[in-house]
Amino acid sequence: MMLALAERLQPLGVATVSKGVGLTFFGVIAAGLSFAPHVSAHFIPDEGTGTQVDAAVVATWRSASVVDQYEFWQIPGTLMGGDAYPVTSGLSVDEVTVKAARRLDANTFVKLGLGVHSGGSQSGDEHQSVAVEHASLGFICCNTKDLRASGDASQIAAEFVAEIGILSAAFTPELLSHRSTASFSEPSLIADVFFGRHFHDQGARVWLHETAGWSAGAEIWQGKAFPATEGDDGGAWDVFARYQFDRDKLNMTLGGWWYTANAQSRADHRYGGGHQHTPVAPPGKSASQFPDIRYTGDLVLLGVDASMAYQWSAASSVGVKLSWAQLTMDGALHDAGGREAALEADQYAVWMQPYLNWQQHTLAVRLERLVADNRLSGASAATLGESAGVLNPGGHTPQRTSLAWTYQWRPQTTFRTEWIQDDTLEEAQSRFTLGVIWQGSLLSGGHAHGAY
Predict the structure, then answer these.
(1) What is the CATH number of the domain that holds 152?
(2) How many CB atoms sit inside 10 A of residue 105's CB?
(3) pTM for the complete prediction?
(4) Number of structural domains the chain divides into
(5) Could you tell me the sign of the dihedral formed by the alpha carbons of 373, 86, 234, 168, in that order?
(6) For range 88-96, the mean pLDDT
């Protein structure tokens, strides 16, 4: 059954990458009208409440590593980076996060978020540290509307919201989801390949915030977050819009976004570029040597996120989520030796996730597919393309099927087990996981709206 569902991903408006990838955008919009994700906006604390502090811890045991020890993780046909580290066998603390927010007055609020995520080389060289993921000052302007008086206890609509500081991107729920709130312990291929898993950058955001079901805005970034780079010729910006529809027991959401960036000598900082996590093998064993190939050029990403949920009883619901993203690159690959090759790339990734909630249980299936059409030219095209992994001579199409069951044991504690059929690399692998999630409030200042 799962194989049949996986095959059905291909006709979702994304048939073949080599024949007009750009035309798939309109096909996915049409598909998204039927499937729309429950998209929560960024957290805005209520006026008149105190400081709110929340925390989460995720620990997972896995039966296998995605790559062998002393090897690096590179999905064929892609240029990866950021914090997209491979999962490893054994017990791992996937995530520890602490988030705080406070409403200062009628029009001002502040937020702070700290996080530690698993990552590093297979040989145990984790290089973990506490990262400031969010530190911002926000302003609410122009006729804030409190809808709770009309009977909706959860809705506060501010016509315009502005934030500045270290921010988490709001343009897609792919970058809002944490392992503590997602159905699966492993991020999607869209998040890992196109955005380096986590997206936190210095920037500013202005948006129309949940007014009559609509949210729309724009963000500008310094370029510290993958896939951009910072500097005079770096940086990034995006625009986004989404609409949420609620009627009786049915909830639907549809959103679209556009992100554009410039990269200057962008390295894969997981293993090279001055932040070496390159595996070092003990005597008698060998480690793969990572080729430090850089990318310079423009990037454009666009995507659609959608979901639909039906609540048939107070404790039961069924739904489906869909996410699709397309990446276009126009630039060059180059190395320290002065070799260079022009690169034009069109890539897309898509996933679909049907799920069932019944009392304390949730069963979810996620089907993923990634297709890359890369074109290299120049005297060093073959050498640089093979070293960077973008040539993909075998024509491998990365795919992954994941099945997850979660059990809400206590209000703040959830158990999760997963089975993953991983065909992202040429050598297929099956693995399973057992995990526990704790998340709760350390200090409650009252009601608030949205999510980080």
Answers:
(1) 2.40.160.10
(2) 9
(3) 0.85
(4) 1
(5) positive
(6) 95
